[in-house]
Amino acid sequence: MINLVLDYGHGGSKPGAVHGAAVEKELNLLTGEEVYGYMHNLYGQSQDFRVFLTRDGDYDISLRSRAGLINEAHHVYPVSLALSVHYNAAGNLKAQGFEVFYAEGSTRGESAAKAITESVEQSGIIKLRGRGYKTTAQLGRRLAFIHNTAPPAVLVEVGFITNPEDRAKALSANFRQDIGKAIAVGIGNYVGF
Ligand SMILES: [Zn+2]
Question: Which fold would CATH assign to domain 2-191?
Answer without folding.
Answer: Aminopeptidase (3.40.630)
